Amino acid sequence: MPSRRRHRRPRRLVLAAVAAGTLAAAAPALAEPAAIREQRAEVARLSERLGALDARLADATARLQASQGRLRAVVERMRRNRVVLIRVTQELDRSRGVLAGRLVDLYTRPDPTLADLLVGTESVTGIVSELGAIERAGRQDGVVVGRIRGTRVAVVALRRELARDRVLLRRETAQAEARQAEVGGLVERQRDVLAGAEGELRRLVAAERERQRREAERRRREREEQRRREAEARRQAEIAREQAEASSGGWSPTTPTWTAPAPSGGGLAYPLGVRGDVVGTPYSGTHTLGNWQSDRALDIVIPVGTPVYAVDSGTIGSIGGGGSGRFAGMNLHLNTASDSFFYAHLSSVAVSSGQSVSRGQVIAWSGSANGVPHLHIGVQNGDPYSVAGGG
After folding, report:
1. Does residue 230 lie within any of the structural domains?
2. Which of 60, 71, 166, 357 is 20 to 30 Å from 322 at the Cα level?
């Protein structure tokens, strides 16, 4: 008798769906690269295929159980028919005994003559009754023999048919078991493939999360470094302002309208509250951008926060800047009656665009660029060096 294996739907599919849902729930927090998206699609494809194989396995198991059920029914019918056959055989044996006794009695006794019958009976009526009994016995024996013979033939045929059914059903059951084993093997292999794909997906997601964690940490350190630099710049500016205040005899950034003494001869005012060395000259070094603001300019080294003056009376033009590196700090244009001037790398400004200013008026405070505290000042038409010799 084949084994009665029951198919239980594996929990692997449920676990795979839960794992995929968990990973998918984490997806919005991640900027998923293409490798993770492709691996997630592969896991979904393998899960779908495993589901189809699992359905095939369930169908094969159902077929096997149906074959086993039919085989048990056939075996049960054979058992019942064996009981019937035994009972019929016993009845046949008894009938044979009765029939044999009758035949022996008929054939061992000589055929009676009419005279014997007449002598042995009291009347003609008795003779007729005995002859009828003999005739009925013969007919009954023939019926018994025919019935027994027909029953025996039918039972033997049924037994042969049931034996054939049992062979066919056993063959069918064996095929169903083989089919179930084959599909079960495919399911197990597919589970292994799916488990590997899920593991790879988890690895990729973990790696991406780690990469994003490192990137966030890098950005955090950069922000901290930027805040540190800004704090240091503010500290240096405060120190420079204190030094400038001490050297200018009481200057304070709260009095931006204070004006330096005008130079004799009506020339340009010196652009700074303290003197500094010229380290950048026209058309050299970084002064090569092809515009007058950059190329016709000087760089004067002074501490951060030094007051910056209008070299002549005029109107403030555009104010901009706020970049980094070579273009760090704020900048502004001063337009006078005879020329235009460009101030750059300022830490802050004390004027607004369109405002009229007087020569020697504080218009800004110096800053730093490329790690060097200095003022960049360009002259559109006149001699750039004129701003360095004023005052």
Report:
1. no
2. 357
At 130, the amino acid letter reads: E
Task: Report phi then psi at 150, rounded to 5.
Answer: -65, -40
> Quick one: CA dihedral 55, 56, 61, 66, positive or negative?
positive
For 170, counting Cβ atoms within 10 Å of its Cβ (0-12 exposed, 13-18 middle, 19+ buried), the class is: middle
Q: How far apart are CA 391 and CA 387, in angstroms?
A: 9
Are 274 and 306 a contacting pair, CB within 8 Å?
yes
Q: Kindly report, residue by residue over 171-212, the tens digit of the pLDDT.
A: 877 887 887 788 778 778 888 877 887 888 888 888 888 888
Domain boundary at 216, 241, 273, which?
216
Strands 314-323 and 356-357: antiparallel
Task: Please say whether the beta carbons of 287 and 295 come within 8 A.
Answer: yes
Matching residue, tokens 């009095």: 255
Of 197, 216, 235, the residue that ends a domain is 216
At a CB cut-off of 8 Å and minimum separation 6, what does 292 contact? 342, 378, 379, 380
